[in-house]
Amino acid sequence: MNRQRAKAWASKAWAVVLAGGEGSRLHGLTRNSEGAAVPKQFCSLQGGPTLIQESLQRASSIAPLQRICAVVAAHHRPWWRQMLNYLPEQNVIVQSHNRGTAHGMLLPLLQIESQDPDAVVVFMPADHYISDEETLTGSLRQAAALAAIDRESIYLLGAEPDQPDTELGYIVPGSRSKSEPSPVLRFVEKPTEAGARMLLEQGALWNVFIVAASVRAFLTLFESSSLAAVMPQTRGRRPPEIDAMHRKLSSVDFSRDVLQGNEAMLRVLPVPYCGWTDLGTPPRIATTLQRLQELRVGPAPQRSPSGHLNLADQYAWVEQNPGSEGRFGRVNLHA
User: Architecture of 3-156+206-320 per CATH?
Assistant: First the structure.
């Protein structure tokens, strides 16, 4: 990245960590001693920082603290209240009603627009695992730089797959470049095994749901979607008014309902292999932990005394008690 690009994005970049999900597919694995299902973003993978804390650290590689936001759910307050107490209060955006990822993204966009209409915004999930942070950080910065220069396009990160996977979404690029952004031809969600292999042969990338663009480009994208009518009603409103309005809205998914159909605005930036996984299911947790065990050299990672739910410990208990319904309910780690 040259100095001109670095200067273009560094003073304008905002990072938004999306952390309002329920992680319902993992509830069987994430119940604490009181029986409450802890959303995975507030869990630790191996006893260290939680996934949201790791995501916020990732966000700090592209934006200063005053330009880092987190979108969270009101009913998750017991888990995020202390974890996020170092962020500026206005940067913790609380949703009283979950109405899908599109609404969860529109709220911070409108808030950022009111403060910094020339901003470049990078959205990232709070519940993924990356083994090679340096590689992903390089791609995050490249995407922010591209969005600062090309203010009309939306830049998606696409991870280089290491195997066909039928549980993930794919982005089919218009070229086979390994380092430059390409037009987006189409999206494919959860293909069959044969379909996934064919996608890999076509150079398809895993959709990691990290997306960068100028505020203007994002809002132009939303104006072409079903949320266009909601935007004027949301701008400048106080949280109680927004909450009352959201109670009446239907759920809108950003990938399915906003991105698809607007491929002309989209570019996908390939991310070299970085060990990305979305930790979305018990089998994926199991696979990730097994890979980490196989790659480990030296002593196991030091456990944090923080008391966060530890997915490695939860997994170990279920593995040692197959078929048990006493602690988590029945959990299938491998299917």
Answer: Alpha-Beta Complex (3.90)
Mean pLDDT of 94-123: 91
269: number of Cβ within 10 Å? 23
Helix, strand, coil % (nearest 5) of the chain? 40, 20, 40
Tokens of 93: 């955006």
The pTM of the whole model exceeds 0.85: yes
Residues sharing a CB contact under 8 Å with residue 117, sequence separation 6 or more, in sequence order: 215, 216
Spatial distance between the Cα atoms of 278 and 230, rounded to a whole number of angstroms: 30
Tell me what pLDDT residue 165 has. 92
H helices present in 211-272, as ranges: 215-223, 231-234, 239-246
Residue 83 tokens read as: 């974890």
Which amino acid is residue 216, in one-letter code? R
Give the mean model confidence (pLDDT) for residues 271-288. 90
Q: What is the pLDDT of residue 74?
A: 92
Q: Which residue, among 21, 25, 23, has the nearest Cα to 329 in the 3D structure?
A: 25
